[in-house]
Each structure stands twice: as structure tokens, then as C-alpha cells.
Design brief:
Number of strands: 4
Number of helices: 2
Shape: globular
Distance between the termini: 24 Å
Number of domains: 1
Radius of gyration: 16 Å
Helix content: 10-25%
């Protein structure tokens, strides 16, 4: 007798994160051009922490300066919705 196991994935909303503007091409489009080595390490650590999350810009907005972005030094940021995929 063979059992058929299905893995179902769901998308869970983690929250609204203040992400560095420079990181969005890498996080959304997987475009890492122009990033410093330090920026790449910060983005990779974020991806590892949240198991390569799905990021979307939460609304049409202009970048704003933040002293406390999700990672890296103070810089221009965008508020983004962050989601992760989980197995049910």
C-alpha cells in the first residue's frame, strides 16, 4: 500500500518592516548589482533569518530617512509588507 503525502504551503504575514531602500532590488527582484559586500551580507542575513521572505512595498510611498532600519546603518527606507511561506 502506497501512501500519498501532500505538502501544503501557506503564506503568513510577518508584519510591516522598515527596509533600506538599497535592499529592495535584491529582496524583490533578486538583483544584487551595485551593492557593497556589507550590504549583501546584511540582506543575506535577513533572508536567512526569515527563510527567504516575500517582500512587497506596502503602499505607494516616497523613501524616508530612518535611524533604525531592519538591518544596516541609518539610511533612506521604505515600509514593506513581509511574508513567509510555511508548510501546513
Amino acid at each position: 500500500m502506497t501512501e500519498n503525502f501532500e505538502t501544503k504551503n501557506s503564506i503568513d504575514f510577518l508584519g510591516i518592516f522598515t527596509l533600506p531602500e538599497y535592499s529592495l532590488n535584491a529582496l524583490i527582484n533578486d538583483d544584487w548589482q551595485g551593492l557593497t559586500e556589507e550590504d549583501q551580507k546584511n540582506i543575506e542575513a535577513f533572508n536567512k533569518k526569515y527563510n527567504t521572505p516575500w517582500v512587497e512595498i506596502s503602499k505607494n510611498q516616497d523613501p524616508f530617512f530612518s535611524w533604525t532600519p531592519e538591518f544596516g546603518l541609518a539610511c533612506n527606507c521604505i515600509e514593506c509588507n513581509v511574508f513567509i511561506t510555511t508548510n501546513d
